[in-house]
Amino acid sequence: MIYTVTLNPAIDYIVNMPSLTIGSINRVHEAAIQLGGKGVNVSTMLKTLGHQSVALGFTAGRTGAALEEGLKAAGQSVDFTRLASGFTRINVKIKAGQETEINGAGPLIASADVEALAAKLEALVDGDALVLAGAAPPGAAPDVYARLLARVQNRRVLAVVDAAGELFRRTLAHEPFLVKPNRLELEEICGRRLADEPKIVEAARELRQKGARNVLVSLAGDGALLVDQDGQAWRMGSVAGNVRNSVGAGDSMVAGFLAGHLSGRDFGQALKLGAAAGTATAFSAVMADQAAVLAMLAQLPEPVRLGAASA
């Protein structure tokens, strides 16, 4: 089974309008509700690709109840830890020529709440996958992901981490199966600018030396790079298109890669499925459906090996 953890899920209110004028009334032309948070997005795309998962994390208040009910209605399995106070955040995603986001803070998380979530990880067994995705909510310590990984350390669980900063760094000692920084996050982690492909590959190899087994770097319109657990580097190209939605694109890539790997694809083909899922979501108004992912998979070029494998 695949388990996803979203510490700070959200209800995303996505609005489209021709322009946005601050200090004035703005009329929405089109609107949609998306149940989100990075781990929730991973679960959504996994289901689209035919892989069931269990969504874990924290919910609170009426908005949290609505999020859980919505996910269940969509056929997803959820086992959130309910908080005693606060409410699950609402994010506003404004698409008016450029994208503008107003993201809520979310409820306060106490140490006891984290422990209650960690206790649920005792259900994981060898062969399961655990996806930790997104930023920490108010009150959560920067070692919260590392604490969760420590609970499954002695089991053969495929751990996936999509986070940034100290929250991410502290997970490397637990040798996660996959990490997925974007270029800016990788630059922040490594402390230098990564101006070209060789420098990005070099930085990805550094993360492997620090513990990550596979490093997938999303490059927006430039595709993606992967350094796999055998030390082989791969480049995944892109296709031209109209980017309509950046929300969930990186999460879709994580889900596609994981689904490809669990289906027995080699790392190159898992990378391609990840790129197809991520790009299809970027080109869709909301999270892409299966038809859009499969159509994108047919359009994308084959991944390219970059030189000889290196440890």
Overview of the structural elements:
The chain is of the alpha/beta class. The chain has one domain (2-10, 36-87, 106-305): 3-Layer(aba) Sandwich (UDP-N-acetylmuramoyl-L-alanine:D-glutamate ligase), CATH 3.40.1190.20. Helices cover 34% and strands 23% of the residues. It contains ten helices and 15 strands. The chain has helices at residues 38-48, 61-73, 111-120, 144-150, 165-169, 183-190, 197-209, 249-262, 267-282, 290-299, and strands at residues 2-6, 10-16, 30-36, 53-59, 77-78, 81-82, 89-96, 98-102, 129-133, 158-162, 178-179, 214-218, 224-227, 233-236, 304-305. Strands 1, 4, 5, 6, 9, 10, 11, 12, 13, 14 and 15 form an eleven-stranded mixed sheet that branches. The mean pLDDT is 94.
Mean pLDDT: 94
Helix content: 25-40%
SSE order = EEEHEHEEEEHEHEHEHHEEEHHHE
Q: Total number of helical segments?
A: 10
- CATH class identity: Alpha Beta
Layout of strands and helices, then pairs:
Elements: E1 2-6, E2 10-16, E3 30-36, H1 38-48, E4 53-59, H2 61-73, E5 77-78, E6 81-82, E7 89-96, E8 98-102, H3 111-120, E9 129-133, H4 144-150, E10 158-162, H5 165-169, E11 178-179, H6 183-190, H7 197-209, E12 214-218, E13 224-227, E14 233-236, H8 249-262, H9 267-282, H10 290-299, E15 304-305
